[in-house]
């Protein structure tokens, strides 16, 4: 199972645009700033390309924008003028979180639940919940499908980044080689 | 893929499991998925996802190193600059 060419193309396009937007080509960035900007761009590109259908994608996008907000809005002390803004922020975040939580599947058949109980060993499920974005809010049925989708999408992200890296590193045109 | 509503059937679960099996690199394809191999499958899936995370991290490293070498005037730097400005 593979991510489609269309999907990878979307990731690549988003990635290049994201890198441009974050100005990673500029000279005055520390190593960590640059690396974190590249990573951020890569994850944002993935989530945007995948869209809002899967829960992991929405969770990832929300995580990324939270991180960005934290950078742009330095922590302030609880002063009067910030309280109203803080309250609206909280409402926005909890509203967002509510829409991100996957709606639990309506009852599986007893037999299917049996199969699940056998399959989903608690330890394994917990591990999966930790690594799939938004995994903690999902029921087990959803988690399995989301894991599959997430793994396929991650692979597409890796392939795309490798492609970009190769493209930027290899001057194929012999005329471009100065020495 | 997601957005499936209503009951999830045995068949759907089995389908997801076999898709996971097909996805993982170098899985030993077993004909009859026994109970123990299902748990192993989930463990391998975890490892697989973690290794993909590491790859993304490594690639981010290398991409950002590439960006930072753009101070010079090599033709490569020119290509990168024109792509990313």
UniProtKB/TrEMBL annotation, chain A:
InterPro entries: HLH_DNA-bd_sf, IBH1-like, IBH1_N. GO terms for biological process: regulation of DNA-templated transcription. Pfam families: IBH1_N (PF26576). Residues 5-67 form the IBH1-like N-terminal domain. The keyword Ribonucleoprotein does not apply. One of its GO terms (molecular function) is protein dimerization activity. Keywords: Transcription, Transcription regulation. Belongs to the bHLH protein family. This is IBH1-like N-terminal domain-containing protein.
Automatic annotation (TrEMBL), chain B:
Transmembrane segments: none annotated. It comes from the Eukaryota. Keywords: Growth regulation, Transcription, Transcription regulation. GO terms for molecular function: protein dimerization activity. This is BHLH domain-containing protein. Belongs to the bHLH protein family. It comes from Eragrostis curvula. Residues 1-52 form the BHLH domain.
């Amino acid at each position: 199972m593979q991510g489609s060419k269309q999907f990878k193309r979307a990731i690549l396009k988003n990635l290049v645009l994201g890198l441009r937007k974050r100005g990673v080509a500029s000279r005055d960035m520390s190593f960590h700033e640059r690396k974190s900007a590249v990573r951020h761009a890569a994850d944002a590109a993935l989530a945007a390309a995948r869209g809002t259908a899967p829960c992991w994608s929405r969770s990832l996008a929300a995580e990324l924008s939270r991180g960005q907000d934290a950078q742009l809005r330095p922590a302030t002390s609880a002063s009067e003028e910030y309280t109203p803004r803080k309250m609206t922020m909280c409402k926005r975040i909890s509203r967002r979180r509510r829409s991100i939580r996957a709606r639990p599947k309506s009852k599986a058949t007893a037999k299917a639940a049996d199969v699940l109980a056998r399959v989903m060993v608690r330890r394994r499920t917990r591990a999966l919940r930790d690594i799939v974005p938004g995994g903690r809010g999902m029921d087990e049925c959803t988690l399995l499908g989301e894991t599959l989708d997430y793994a396929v999408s991650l692979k597409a992200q890796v392939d795309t980044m490798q492609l970009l890296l190769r493209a930027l590193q290899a001057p194929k045109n012999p005329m471009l080689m100065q020495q | 893929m997601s957005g499936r509503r209503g009951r999830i059937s045995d068949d759907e679960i089995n389908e997801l499991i076999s898709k996971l099996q097909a996805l993982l690199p170098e899985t030993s394809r077993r004909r009859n998925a026994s109970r123990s191999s299902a748990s192993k499958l989930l463990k391998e899936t975890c490892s697989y996802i973690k290794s993909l995370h590491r790859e993304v991290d490594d690639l981010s490293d290398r991409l950002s190193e590439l960006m930072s070498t753009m101070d010079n005037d090599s033709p490569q730097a020119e290509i990168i600059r024109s792509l990313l400005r």
